[in-house]
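Summary of Year 1 activities. Much of the first year was spent building the evaluation harness for sequence design. The harness presents a backbone, in tokenized form, and records the residue chosen at every position. We chose the following record to illustrate the format because it has been used consistently in internal testing since the harness was completed.
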């Protein structure tokens, strides 16, 4: 093989590796965040208590649902 062919193969391999790596890492992160949500209802209650609000169950569920719906819109 000539030098030009080796360079061409190296560049194509690099590009294919980057594309495959992007999709594999994207799939992994989506799965990770579905299994481990970044914020839970207990965290919402704690934040509301720190802000001086009395966290009612209805309000906590409402905030949690709104955060989930924002996350679903990003997909």
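For this record, the design step produced the sequence shown next.
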């Amino acid at each position: 093989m000539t030098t030009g062919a080796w360079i061409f193969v190296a560049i194509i391999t690099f590009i294919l590796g980057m594309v495959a790596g992007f999709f594999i890492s994207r799939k992994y992160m989506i799965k990770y965040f579905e299994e481990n949500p970044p914020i839970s209802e207990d965290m919402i209650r704690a934040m509301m208590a720190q802000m001086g609000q009395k966290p009612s169950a209805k309000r906590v569920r409402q905030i949690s649902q709104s955060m989930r719906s924002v996350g679903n819109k990003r997909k």
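The chain has two domains: 1-36, 39-75. Quantitative recovery figures across the full test set are reported in Table 2.
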